[in-house]
Structures are given as C-alpha cells and as structure tokens.
Amino acid sequence: MAGTEIATPGAPPAGPAVSSGSSFHTAMRILPPSQRQAMFEIYAFCRAVDDIADGDTQHADRLAALEDWRRDIAACYAGNAPAALHALDAQIRTFHLQQQDFEAVIDGMIMDVVATIVAPDAATLDLYCDRVASAVGRLAVRVFGLDEAPGIELAHHLGRALQLTNILRDLDEDADIGRLYLPAESLAAAGIPPGTPHQIIAHPAIDTVCRGVARDAQAHYDAAAAVMARCPSRVVRSPRIMYEVYHEILTRLLARGWRAPRTRVRVPKARLAWIVLRHAIA
User: Fold this and answer.
1) Full-model pTM
2) Are 3 and 47 in contact (CB under 8 A)?
C-alpha cells in the first residue's frame, strides 16, 4: 500500500499515517511510554521501507535501497548499529525483537518492487500478507508483552485480517498504481477475465469476489479474538483497538458493497475516540 513520506528512525513518523485520527496512533497512545516509543521505532522502519517500495525511482535503485536496510538491520544484530538506527537498536535489545521479522517485512516490500502485483495466486497473497502485516505483528506482540505462542498466533491472524481489510478498502487506490491484490482463483471462479486492475474491479462480479475475501478476513478476525480472549487484558489493549477499528471498516465495506462507483469508507473520529476510551479504562 502506498505511503506518503519517509519516516525518520528515532522519532514518531510524521504525516497522515500517524495523525490524531489514524488507527495506528489511536492504538498506540494508550501504551506506556517505553512501549509506545518502541512501536514508533518499528513503525518508522516499516514506513521507510514501504516508501522505498512505492517510490518512483528505478527498480534497481529501490531494490538496492531495500538491501541497504537489510544490511543495516543485520548490523544492529551484529553489534554495529548504524548511527541513524541507535534508537531502533535499543528497542531491538529491550524487547528481544527478531531479525527474521524485520527481514520478512523487507522481503514483502521487495515483492512489490520486483513485479507489479496483479491478481496473485492465493498462496502468494498469503505470503505477502505474512510479510507485510503478520511480521509486523510478530514484532509488535513482543513489545506488548504477550507470551511467545499466543503472540505468534495473534500476529498470524490479526495481521492477515488487517491486511485483507486494507486490500478490500483500497481497490481503487491500488488500481491507480497498477496493483490488484485479489486472488486469481477467486476472480476466475467468478468469471472475471484477466485484464488491467481497473478493468477487473469494474466487472459486475467483483462484489462476489470481495465478499469472499471479506469472509476470509472475518475468519482471521474471529481467530484473533479467540487468542485475545485467552490473554491478560493489559497486554492486548492496543491489538484490540486495531481489531475494532479495522473490523468496523470491514463491516462498513460489507454494507457498502464493491460495485462501482465505490465511495471511500472511513471510521468517524468520534467512533475512534470511543473505541480508544473504552479500552484505555478497561
């Protein structure tokens, strides 16, 4: 998904993605300061590599920049963190963040660079969701303090639920940059022929395909909710906020449908405020 500007490691990233109304900022504001700063460092990394992947430079330049990030992350784990990553390195050591999760995020960005993703097969879509969303979740649950097994399970399901919701919300924006993340098998089953992303999402049967993806997302939401129900409430406050905000988006998308023309779906600020307040005092 397209970003808007590169974040600076060591500080909360600027721009609309962490504005006062964003779901990320909403979910993070209730964390203790040390956890909140760790999440901003993780988010700054994610934002930076995402902006590289969505940039307009040559493919080779973007791949090189992403590999530079891979080397810098490896340097952190080798005890030679670059000066610009000292703040992130401190969080890596405090919360025992895993190198393979940072690398998985970079691998997900590379998927968007090496080839424009249009109607991937289901296995490729799931791998993409794991890399760009669940891997971030695996970093986050360590910051939140979840135990290993339920943390990994929650990251698996909630990451996929959120990413599939993003895909369903951003059909038109993704098509504008030549991308389409709906699975090829579902498009073929609905009788939608190959074409450009804009041609595919203009097909009358696109609603059927999207509702099927929404069912997959709901299954992941249900599984994530079951994991959180088994965890101490103090360690899943932020995941619960992300869950509720994105599930609300999915609910509104289902009510709107996916036949063209599609209006943008948003969660009202008052609703966001209510969700965060309810979990802040829980």
Assistant:
1) 0.90
2) yes
